[in-house]
């Protein structure tokens, strides 16, 4: 265990977050996402929920401020609906650490899959929320003044 780092962050996840550069993307995927089919690098966080992982990850990385939105989610298919509680729970974690982040950008399922194929890592979670997948685009790490 490390001081100041959530116990939800596995050693493998910590190493991947460290190796990501600005502009790299991480997919926080629900339990049903075809991560093994799409991801060139796949990590497991079985049993963990995405809002809890956001709360653990976001103190460790900056979100990209040079793009329209560093947050990408899948829009609902025709005739389907998004659960607004999912977005609210994600936004609470995001705003806790990065309150000036623009709204989530919603893309259709196939575009989301294309983004996932290009992502630095897919983190498979135990979340079962419908349309619960989210992509985070990492930004430039701010300078820490001593």
Profile the largest sheet: 6 strands, mixed
- CATH fold type: RbsD-like fold
CATH class membership: Alpha Beta
Structural domain tally: 1
Which blocks of ≥5 consecutive residues have pLDDT under 50? none
User: Which oligomeric form is depicted?
Assistant: single chain
Helix and strand sequence = HEHEHEHEHEE
CATH architecture heading: 3-Layer(aba) Sandwich
Distance between the termini: 25 Å
Question: Gist?
Answer:
The protein has 146 residues and is α/β, with parallel strands linked by helices. The chain is 31% helix and 17% strand. It has a single domain, classed as RbsD-like fold.
Describe the structure.
- The protein is α/β, with parallel strands linked by helices and 146 residues long.
- It has a single domain (11-137), classed as RbsD-like domain (RbsD-like fold, 3-Layer(aba) Sandwich), CATH 3.40.1650.10.
- The chain is 31% helix and 17% strand.
- It has helices at 11-19, 35-38, 50-57, 84-97, 109-118; strands at 25-29, 42-45, 71-74, 105-107, 121-125, 134-137.
- A six-stranded mixed β-sheet has the order 2-5-1-6-3-4.
- The longest helix has 14 residues, at 84-97.
- The radius of gyration is 14 Å and the shape is globular.
- The chain starts with 10 loop residues before the first helix and ends in a 9-residue tail after the last strand.
- 29% of the residues are buried.
List its salient traits.
six-stranded mixed sheet, alpha/beta, RbsD-like fold
SSE inventory with pairings:
Blueprint: H1 11-19, E1 25-29, H2 35-38, E2 42-45, H3 50-57, E3 71-74, H4 84-97, E4 105-107, H5 109-118, E5 121-125, E6 134-137
Parallel strand pairs: 1-5, 2-5, 3-4
Antiparallel strand pairs: 1-6, 3-6
Helix pairs in contact: 3-4
